[in-house]
Amino acid sequence: MGEISNSTGTEAVAASAMQPEEAGAGEEAESQPLYRIERPVYDEAFISSQLLNRKDNSTTLGQRLAQQLRCSSKRAKAAALTFLPILTWLPSYPVKQYLFSDVVSGLSTGVVQLPQGLAYAMLAAVPPVYGLYSSFYPVLLYTFFGTSRHISVGTFAVISLMIGAVAVREAPDSMFYVLPANGSNVSAVLDVEARDARRVQVAVVLTTLVGIIQLALGLLRFGFVAIYLTEPLVRGFTTAAAVHVVVSQLKYLLGVKTQRFSGPLAAIYSATAVLSHIASTNVPTVIMGLVCIVFLYAVKDLNQRFKKKLPIPIPGEIIVVIVSTGVSYGLSLSEDYKVEVVGKIPTGLLPPTAPEFSLLPSLVTDSFAVAIVGFSMGISLAKTFALKHGYSVDGNQELIALGLCNFISSFFQTFAITCSMSRSLVQESTGGKTQIAGLLASLMVLLVVVAIGFVFQPLPQTALAAIIMVNLLGMFKQFADIPALWRTSKIELAIWLVAFVASVLLGLDYGLLVAISFAILSVIYRTQRPKSAILGHVPGTGLYCDVDEYEEAAEYEGIKIFYSNASVYFVNSDLYVSALKQKTGVDPEALQAARKTQKKVMEKAKSTKNPSLKLCGTDKQQEVSHEVLSYEAAAEAHGNGQLGESGGGRSHSEEAVFLEPAVSAVHSIILDWTPCSFIDSVGAKAIKQEACCASWTPYSFLAAL
């Protein structure tokens, strides 16, 4: 801001700035070119009446609907390609370039997907075979409907744990204790088959509802809902989920039998139950579990260190599954050492059956949480790979794809799925180019289900617990976010901590609700506590900076440039006006009161007959007192030739009234609204009211947009 002038009745702003320095060292600052702009200051009424005219939109609502619903071969083809993305790349699939890489990637992903499917079924509180079903049907469907070429969908620890919490809540162990038929004095025993069957029904119905919600959101173009799950929220939430998972797997790792808890404080109750039964730890179970953990950790470390030299990652999970199954079968760990094993795995696929829809009313809230979390994790990883490999993914189509995967697969007894980070990294790092790799991985799972599933019946559950725990190491590394967020943003750190603490203590469902609510409140807090400053000009540049922060920034005399980094609306309009008064030092109410006082005194001076009444105003800047006489006293003084005298002496009969200056030293205030995205009517009225109270003209109260 250089100056504000009012020449020939036209307001103009003359601004000057320095252009960037030309290339070449040693160039003198004086040789830098300058540019000067003079432009008139317009108001809204002049712009709308003289400069701009809106286009006449004569189309009716019916015409617009007809245009949107108009069908043609071109639009039908575009809709088909959007709904079935496989049609866009499969006809032109470069077999020679991509097929070998996809085969290697598919086999590598399959050997990881198989043990993870078995393990994550334990988290979902259903028999392991249902994890294999969930690793086949959804992956097959995503090949046709998904837009990402690299993510691996299927079972995932966080989603499986959320499903397991719901299944345990709706079908707790206490519902399935029955008395044996051969005696009345024997204590009740747990009917495991009836309990598992009921939990499978709950998981299947929940998956159906999750699919319906995701499909509806995708068709309604609500793919943007994932933006409300900010990254600190998701990372804090997934870290808390990792804590829940580890706590839930401790009993399998130690070989103790405890009740599975759900709801608030479930993690604390589960840890307490395990510690209370620590004396009954099964030693062979602990030994095998610890050996598996050490081996898997070593393999993952080797894969990470030598990922550029290894053609494919070492499949640690499948090695653990095969070796531990062989050891368990050869040493009869289940019969001789009471080591818990997977148990019966039926051969073949189940026929499609309708879910038990009578369970729907109690699962609506949980299904929304699972649907949003599953989609947010899938789309975030899909966008990461798309950015890395130079293609785009459609958030709405991803919602539709996940919705179809969950909805259709639920009729084949699966539980909800999403993208798995560990498998996706394997699929991408081993050279996967398209979802052909995912298709081959699902076919490997199908082979196990149909032909050789019974082989894994002796698999110890402690080995699956070890696989789950080691795969969560990456989530525990997210604790490193805390010092980073402390340095960059305290509010985002608060979101991370609230998401973590609430999810650990209240459970994943209520914790997610609390975290989202807190994140929304943090946005409101930021708008109510924006940064405000008075800007000053940095000499020799076109920069305007905070005068309190930078000593080079200097204000123009009589001009205040007020900056606030938030929009002005009903929530923060009063706070905005208060900050404006505080920073500029201008109080419109005080100015208005002072003007009223002056007006009353002047009217009193005009009406009085006492010629000796003097009104004295003090100029604080020049420390000079000026006398203001009534008209009669002024005329008398002029006639006697005394008006030009200093008036150093004052008679005791003279009455003097001293007035504070009613006019502020600030004659113009500029509102920098560059970061302001919108101003509602309440905010506009608040600012207009302050301007009117100060009796400023529109050109004294400017807005730099």
User: What general outline do the C-alpha atoms trace?
Assistant: elongated
Between the first and last Cα atoms, what is the distance in angstroms?
13 Å
Helix content: 40-55%
Lateral strand order in the biggest sheet: 9-8-10-14-15
Q: What is the average per-residue confidence, as pLDDT, rounded to a whole number? A: 82
Major β-sheet annotation: 5 strands, mixed
- How large, in whole angstroms, is the Cα Rg? 37 Å
Annotation, overall tally of beta strands? 15
Query: Structural class, from helix and strand content?
Result: alpha+beta
Membrane topology: Multi-pass membrane protein
Pfam families: Sulfate_transp
Keywords: Membrane, Transmembrane, Transmembrane helix
Domain STAS: 549-687
Brief synopsis:
The protein contains 27 helices and 15 strands. With 705 residues, the chain is of the alpha+beta class. GO terms for molecular function: secondary active sulfate transmembrane transporter activity.
